[in-house]
Every structure is written in structure tokens, then in C-alpha cells.
Design a protein that fits this description.
The complex is a heterodimer of chains A (about 300) and B (about 350). Chain A is built from 13 helices and one strand, in the order H-H-E-H-H-H-H-H-H-H-H-H-H-H. Chain A has about 300 residues and is an all-alpha fold. Chain A has three domains: about 30 residues; about 100 residues, no CATH class; about 150 residues, no CATH class. The chains are: A mainly alpha (about 300), B mainly alpha (about 350).
Chain lengths: ~300, ~350
């Protein structure tokens, strides 16, 4: 174990702060908050996964309508539980709400597979439902489910290999989805001053847009335009990262741009020596740029 | 040559300031007090820069091989630059020098003639151990320990014995739990023992099943992991150490997985029952700690800076998987329209 008690005792701190920090170092105060939250989250995920398997294995015994009704009732119970306790501080309410939303997702998938009620729009309705839930409960977890369903509606796969699919149509859908998220983020930010959703929108919209540009860059027919789009996106993201003081976004820009440029080099130039030399130069340039940007971020923070 | 104990501790304190919830003036005072000569990056930036530098070393190695100057030249250049950055530029923990060191050593190994012998695992383990020691990097050191355990699993695989393969990683897990009881002055060594305590039960379980060529559960295995988990839990609660509680969770999770065949219920019901049990346990503990200000409390805290990001990312992935999985259900159901449908739109042709 570690203890920083000697350093804290020697530091120039007020007696109250010093005694609080020393109590933390001696573990006189020890928060189980992360453990409780993790247990509750894992519990909710296990239940939702179990329900999902249950549906797929026992359709004939239970019957499709019964499954749909039971799932809806269970989900409603979770939402009601979280609603009745929304004013109380609780570490597990978030997970119960999330479980309810997961059950709704499972139910929607089930209903659609059995009765084709909404057709291709099912995931869009699901995204809308989770979005309403996210606003009612001010829950970032529900917002992430909503965004996941929206991306699913656009046909963007949940697997990472979709980035290397070289499917131009998929790239365009990723751009449209990212643009919708950007607009949604802006409307949310302007309408609700105390919003906690902005980082979720930012991360997902940027990742989708960069993934779209990378798909274009790795496609032999569109590699040139893909690189140009990537450079434009990276420039805009860099400006935004400095304005918003968010270094992570700059990292996305650097990593995706380097991969796109390297893909272009390997697709369009000949000779292994030249290609690996240029790859080396590009990566060194990106690392040097990141280090320099990092220094700027740190000097601004200081 | 590398940060002193005081400097390393200063870096660790600087990394915890966000969690200490200090008034601005006291935070600034601590920040200036614990500033060292070493140039470092935050974990997120360091991880990104590490990955990119590793990519650069791979390109350099390929270039050297292509122009016929061998991988050893790439290794010498990488390690040379890393040392130069450490000694001249005082870079330590930026992500660059770690990637250059480990990339250089791997490039060196890739230049050696391939023997196909299991001892090759030990050579790679040695590379990670050297880089871990030089860079005070607990992740490299933990990978070295995992590879060392993998070596013993590999050479004892012919015995097809679960216990023989799992013996070394289980012993390392126990040693790590004991080591955590000691107060370490160097933070990287403490983190190394934490990682070993968390990861080794998983290595034992995977290696044991691989060596014994079995996939079924065993009550004996479950019992051993339950005991290991109970030890980690008891020591973790006594020392009040998050890493040991996490290690206990891993061991108890494996025990639950091994015991899965000893309750005569379908797997999905076991998943639901264990989920309800976890949720209920979390609720009971949260309720018991409500309002407490001393000892065990439930005030907001975090294990890493990225707890929320991990949770939201996990939720997005699992949520998509669940809605897809139920939509892919058996189509042959009497009384329903049946069949998997087109569960997507906006021009997508994703047929679930």
C-alpha cells in the first residue's frame, strides 16, 4: 500500500485540510463508492444479458406476446422505481434505471423481430424513447443508449471493424449521424445551461466523424478525398480542442489523421523503403505536434 | 538517470490532486511544491503518444529491415533516442520514451533467429521486465509477470493438469496480496503488485483450462478461487485497499463461473439471479453506509479518471448487443409473424 502522509504533513496546508487528507491516507475515511457503483452496474448488465438469452431460448415455451408484456412490465417497474426515488441520493438507482432502459431495448428488438411493427424505423423510435428518458432522468447512461440506437438506425455496426470496411455509403451515414449529434448537442447546450450531456455528444460525434473519414481514406477509390476530409476535420477539431480546453479531442485528431495519411501513403506510393520512411516521418511529426500542443495546454492551465 | 523516490512520489501526489478536493489556493500551493524537473504527460495523452510512438518504432524497424541494416539497428536507434530524451530532455512518463524502450527491445528480439522454443516467451518477458524497471512502468512489469507465468503454463501443458498450469499464477496472486500489505515507498511498485493481484487469477483460470483442455466447471476450482477471493477481500477490507477489493471481485467472479454447473438451472436464470444478487448486495451496502462520515463511507470517489467514460462506453456496447441479440431470436414461433426483421433504417440494410 501507499501513504503520502509525510508529504502532506510537511506541506503548507490549513489544519483542517491537512487533517482530512491525513485521515484519508490512514484510511480512517475510505469510500466504497466505486465498488458499490461497479457492483450495481455489473448486476444490471447481468440481468439484462440473462433476459436477452432467456428470450432467444424460450420463445416456444413462453410465447411471444407474454415475453413482450413481461419485459414491458419489468422495464416500467424499473423506471417507476427510479422515478419515485429521483430526489434521493442513491448509488444503485442509476443502475436500476439503466436496467429498465436495457429491458426496453430488448423488448423493442423482440417486438420488431416478431411483428415488424415499426419496420426500419424501430431503432429510431428506440433512440427517441431513450432520449426522452435521458432528459426526464438527466441520465448520461440513457443518452449513450439513445445515441447507440441512433447509430444502429444508420446501420453503423457496433463492431470496431466497421472502420476498415471501405464502404463509402457507411462513411456518409457516419457523417450524417455525427452531424445530427452535433446539432443535437448545440440545441441541448443552448436550451439547458446546466447540461451534463455535452461531453457525451462531443466524444461520440467526433469519433463517428473521424471513423467516417477513415473509411474514405482506407478505400482505394476515395483515399484522396478521405485524407482531405480528415485534414479538414482535424483542423476544426484542433481549433475546438483549444477553445474548449479539451486535450482528448486533439488526441483523436492526431491519431485518426496519422492513420489516414499512412493509409494514403501505403495505397498510393510504391517501394517499401519510401513508404515506411514516410510513415516514420508522419508519426514523428504527429508525436512532436502533440507534445507541443500538450505544452500549450499545460501552460494555459497553469 | 531516473526519478528519485521523492520525485516519483511527487508525481503520484500531483496525479491525485483532483481527488483530494482542495481549495484553489491550497491546490496551487501543493502543485508548485510537487513540481519536479521531469516532463510528463497525463495518462490519456501519454497512452495516445505511447501508441503512436510504438507505431513509429514499427515503421523504423520495417525501414531498417527493408534497406538491409537489420532490426538491431532499429533497436539501437530507438533505445538510444529514449535515453537521450530521458537524460537530456528530462522526459519521463511522456509516453515517448517508454514506447521507444519497449519497441526497441521487441525490435531487437524480432531480429534474433526464431527457435520456436517456449524460452522465447521468457526472452519477451525479460524485455518487458527490463523496460519496466528502466521506465518505472508497472504495466510493463505486470506484462513481464504474466509472460513468465505463461512460460510455465506452456512448458507444463503436456501434463494436461489444470493445477500444474495454474500453480505459478495463483502463487503470484497470493504473493501480490501479501506484498500489498507492505507500505511501499515507490508508487510504481505498489501499482505493479496491484495489477498482479488483479490479473493473475484470470491468467490461472485461462491457462489452467487451456492446459487441461477442458471447458467445464469444477467445484474444486471454484473452491480455490473462492478462498483466494476471500483472502483478497479480508486483506483488502483490513488494509482498506481498492485494488485488493477489485482482485477479490475477479477471483469471486471466476469462482461463480466455475460453480455454474452445480445449480441445476439454465444459464440465463443464473445470469439473472447473480445480477439480482449483486444489485441487492450493492443496495444493502449503500444503505448501510448512508450518512457515515468515518471509516467506510459512500461519498463520491473514483478509481480512475475514466470511470464514467468506461461505464458509458460499456453501456453503449452492451445495450446495442442486447437489442440486436433479442432481435435475432428464433423465427419459428407459432402464433407470431416470426422471423428476424430489418431492425435499422436511414438507408442501412442491416438485417437483424
Amino acid at each position: 500500500m501507499l501513504s503520502f502522509e509525510p508529504e502532506i504533513a510537511a506541506a503548507d496546508l490549513s489544519p483542517a485540510t491537512a487533517s482530512r487528507l491525513i485521515a484519508m491516507q490512514r484510511r480512517k475515511i475510505f469510500s466504497l463508492f466505486p465498488e458499490i457503483r461497479a457492483l450495481a452496474w455489473i448486476g444490471a448488465m447481468l440481468i439484462a444479458s440473462g433476459v436477452s438469452v432467456l428470450i432467444s431460448k424460450h420463445i416456444n415455451e413462453i410465447g411471444p406476446l407474454t415475453i413482450a408484456i413481461v419485459l414491458a412490465v419489468a422495464a416500467a417497474a424499473c423506471y417507476a422505481w427510479a422515478w419515485m426515488r429521483r430526489d434521493r441520493q442513491s448509488l444503485v438507482n442509476d443502475s436500476i434505471l439503466l436496467l429498465g432502459a436495457m429491458l426496453v431495448s430488448a423488448d423493442a428488438g423482440w417486438i420488431e423481430s416478431q411483428w415488424h411493427t415499426f419496420g426500419p424505423r424501430a431503432l429510431l423510435f428506440l433512440a427517441l424513447f431513450h432520449a426522452i428518458g435521458a432528459y426526464r432522468y438527466n441520465s448520461r447512461a440513457l443518452l449513450s443508449l439513445s445515441i447507440g440506437a441512433l447509430a444502429g438506425w444508420f446501420g453503423i455496426d457496433r463492431k470496431i471493424d466497421f472502420i476498415f470496411s471501405s464502404n463509402v455509403d457507411l462513411a456518409l451515414r457516419a457523417f450524417v449521424c455525427a452531424a445530427i449529434l452535433a446539432v443535437w448537442r448545440e440545441v441541448d447546450r443552448r436550451a439547458r445551461k446546466a447540461t451534463i450531456f455535452t461531453p457525451v455528444f462531443d466524444h461520440t460525434a467526433l469519433l463517428l466523424a473521424f471513423a467516417g473519414a477513415l473509411i474514405l481514406a482506407t478505400n482505394r477509390d476515395t483515399s484522396g478525398i478521405g485524407v482531405l476530409v480528415m485534414l479538414a476535420l482535424a483542423t476544426a477539431t484542433t481549433i475546438y480542442a483549444f477553445r474548449a480546453n479539451k486535450e482528448a479531442y486533439l488526441l483523436y485528431a492526431a491519431i485518426f489523421t496519422t492513420i489516414a495519411l499512412d493509409a494514403w501513403v501505403w495505397q498510393n506510393l510504391h517501394g517499401d523503403a519510401l513508404r515506411s520512411f514516410l510513415t516514420l516521418i508522419l508519426v514523428i511529426g504527429a508525436v512532436a505536434g502533440l507534445m507541443s500542443a500538450h505544452r500549450r495546454f499545460r501552460s494555459r492551465a497553469a | 538517470m531516473r526519478p528519485t523516490i521523492a520525485e516519483e512520489r511527487a508525481h503520484a501526489i500531483a496525479g491525485q490532486l483532483d481527488d483530494w478536493q482542495l481549495p484553489n489556493d491550497e491546490r496551487r500551493s501543493l502543485q508548485s511544491r510537487f513540481t519536479t524537473k521531469w516532463r510528463r504527460n497525463g495518462p490519456f495523452a501519454a497512452a495516445g503518444i505511447f501508441a503512436m510512438t510504438l507505431f513509429a518504432v514499427a515503421a523504423l524497424t520495417f525501414l531498417c529491415k527493408t534497406i538491409g541494416v537489420t532490426e538491431f539497428t532499429a533497436a539501437a536507434i530507438s533505445i538510444g533516442i529514449a535515453e537521450l530524451l530521458i537524460l537530456r530532455k528530462k522526459m519521463y512518463g511522456s509516453g515517448i520514451e517508454s514506447a521507444l524502450w519497449i519497441g526497441g527491445l521487441i525490435a531487437f528480439i524480432s531480429g534474433l533467429p526464431s527457435s520456436g522454443k517456449p524460452e522465447a516467451i521468457l526472452v519477451i518477458a525479460a524485455a518487458f521486465a527490463i523496460a519496466g524497471w528502466r521506465m518505472q512502468n508497472p504495466f510493463f512489469a505486470a506484462i513481464a509477470a504474466i509472460l513468465a507465468a505463461a512460460y510455465f503454463i506452456d512448458i507444463w501443458e503436456s501434463a494436461h493438469s489444470y493445477w500444474r498450469a495454474a500453480a505459478v499464477p495463483l502463487a503470484l496472486a497470493l504473493i501480490a496480496i501479501g506484498a500489498k500489505a507492505r507500505t511501499w515507498r515507490r508508487p510504481w511498485i505498489d501499482t505493479f503488485w496491484s495489477l498482479v493481484a488483479i490479473v493473475m487469477p484470470l491468467v490461472a483460470e485461462i491457462g489452467g483450462h487451456w492446459a487441461s483442455d477442458s471447458s467445464g466447471g469444477s467445484l474444486r476450482y471454484a473452491l480455490v478461487y473462492a478462498i483466494l477471493g476471500a483472502i483478497a477481500l479480508a486483506v483488502g477490507l483490513r488494509l482498506r485497499e481498492h485494488a485488493l477489493l477489485l482482485a477479490a471481485g475477479v477471483s469471486l467472479g471466476i469462482a461463480g463461473y466455475e460453480a455454474r454447473e452445480f445449480a441445476d438451472y439454465p444459464g440465463e436464470w443464473k445470469l439473472i439471479a447473480s445480477g439480482i444478487a449483486l444489485l441487492a448486495f450493492a443496495a444493502v451496502v449503500a444503505r448501510a453506509l448512508r450518512g457515515r462520515t468515518q471509516g467506510f463511507v459512500a461519498t463520491p470517489a473514483r478509481l480512475t479518471r475514466y470511470d464514467e467514460l468506461v461505464k458509458l462506453g460499456g453501456t453503449m456496447v452492451i445495450g446495442s448487443a442486447i437489442q440486436g441479440h433479442t432481435a435475432e431470436s428464433d423465427p419459428g414461433v407459432a402464433g407470431s409473424h416470426g422471423g428476424s426483421g430489418s431492425f435499422g433504417g436511414a438507408g442501412s440494410t442491416t438485417d437483424y
